[in-house]
Design goal:
The chain is α/β, with parallel strands linked by helices. The chain has two domains: 8-247, Aspartate Aminotransferase, domain 2, CATH 3.40.640.10; 250-383, Aspartate Aminotransferase, domain 1 (Alpha-Beta Complex). Helix content is 36%, strand content 15%. The protein is built from 14 helices and twelve strands. A seven-stranded mixed sheet has the order 1-7-6-5-4-2-3, with helices on both faces. The protein has a five-stranded mixed sheet with strand order 8-9-12-11-10. Strand 4 (140-146), helix 6 and strand 5 form a beta-alpha-beta unit. The longest helix has 20 residues, at 250-269. It is globular, with a radius of gyration of 21 Å. The relative contact order is 0.13.
């Protein structure tokens, strides 16, 4: 079904998908097979071996391309496996400019895996595109951005970065995990590669681990497919089925995440024990005007710090919630709470964490789709 001119909700349900040709099943079957019978050497139905191509994963990759307004999708066993594939496009001596406020696992794979192979990483605030352009040199091959960033919710101007990348023949990759394609579509803004931890909002039910890349350009996509097949870090058919199912309600879920997030962010800002609240929807949030321009809403991710900046205060709050669950990850239907300095960003040295604003008292919320009043009541008793 051609959904290229359809609106997002239609693409989420139908984009890139067709009923199963063998049975007419409306849901893509879980093709739990490793190999495929060939009628003769090289004479097959498009599938030879499931590392290379599997019908369930193939359907998900097409669906992801449709909702991100790209042409090609590639799915991996985790978000980090997807990042791994992007960096494997580079060669020793190549340089990457990355935001300094990013997921701790991204920082870890850059610094502890790829740096020793001669790839150079520069970490810099990206709120001002001029700071990025100042780092560009002849060896720069990739700009890696998150927006909103994890966990400070910083907003980066994707169009401005795309202009810098195009001018200098550099690839621009954007981690779109926090925003989802329901709120932000980086390819429309000029990005070459969009990355998702599909574990999060795309799956949406905390029951799968997966990564995804979406590309517009055929040459870039073919290189990603070569790496995907050669390195073998693919996702399986059952997980592909789960994320396909999750995407069908992505627009419904993210709309409620946004509504709940807005209520909780405004409530937190009024609490006497809370110092700062980081949420892109506030007019005084850095680059709020950019967020308004490139996002359709402001999401359900919020961070806040406690007055006095004591780690024990943050630990007390996260230990005393009842409805929020203290756990890694984000983007599920249930609300989660975490302490970045000792959880998601513990792999970043303290000095580097604090430079990007990740203080000892910072708490990160993944606001779920429960009743907002119940969530506020839970936070109120924990803060008290």
């Amino acid at each position: 079904m051609d959904t290229s001119k359809s609106k997002f909700a239609t693409k989420a349900i139908h984009g890139g998908l067709e009923p199963d040709p063998a049975t007419g099943a409306i849901m893509t079957p879980i093709y739990q097979t490793s190999t495929y019978i060939q009628d003769g050497v090289g004479n097959h139905k498009g599938y030879e071996y499931s590392r290379t191509l599997n019908p369930t994963r193939d359907a998900l990759e097409k669906n992801l391309a449709a909702i991100e307004n790209g042409n090609y999708g590639a799915c991996f066993g985790s978000g980090l496996a997807a990042i791994d594939a992007v960096i494997k496009m580079l060669n020793p001596g190549d340089e990457v400019i990355s935001t300094n406020d990013l997921y701790g696992g991204s920082y870890r794979i850059f610094k502890t895996i790829f740096e020793k192979y001669g790839i150079v990483f520069h970490f810099t605030p990206m709120a001002n595109p001029a700071d990025v352009e100042a780092l560009v040199n002849d060896n720069t091959k990739l700009i890696w951005a998150e927006t909103p960033t994890n966990p400070m919710m910083n907003i980066i101007d994707i169009e401005a970065l795309a202009a810098i990348a195009k001018k200098n023949n550099i690839l621009l990759a954007v981690d779109n995990t926090f925003a989802t394609p329901y709120l932000q579509r980086p390819i429309d803004l000029g990005a070459d590669i969009v990355m998702h931890s599909a574990t999060k909002y795309l799956g949406g039910h905390s029951d799968v681990v997966m990564g995804a890349l979406i590309m517009k350009d055929e040459e870039v996509a073919n290189e990603i497919y070569r790496i995907q097949n050669s390195s073998g870090g693919v996702t399986g058919p059952m997980d592909s089925f789960l994320v396909l199912r999750g995407i069908k309600t992505l627009h419904l879920r993210v709309q409620r995440h946004c509504e709940n997030g807005a209520k909780i962010a405004h409530w937190l800002k009024e609490q006497p024990s809370v110092d700062k609240v980081f949420w892109p929807g506030f007019e005084d949030h850095p680059n709020h005007d950019v967020a308004k321009r490139q996002m359709d809403d402001f999401g359900g991710m919020i961070s806040f710090s406690m007055k006095g900046n004591k780690m024990e205060d943050a630990h007390r709050v996260v230990a005393n919630v009842k409805l929020f669950s203290l756990a890694e990850s984000l983007g599920g239907v249930e609300s989660l709470i975490g302490h970045p300095a000792t959880m998601t960003h513990a792999s970043i040295p303290k000095e580097e964490r604090e430079k990007s604003g990740v203080s000892d008292s910072l708490i990160r919320l993944s606001v779920g789709v429960e009743d907002a009043d119940d969530l506020i009541a839970d936070l109120a008793q924990a803060l008290a």
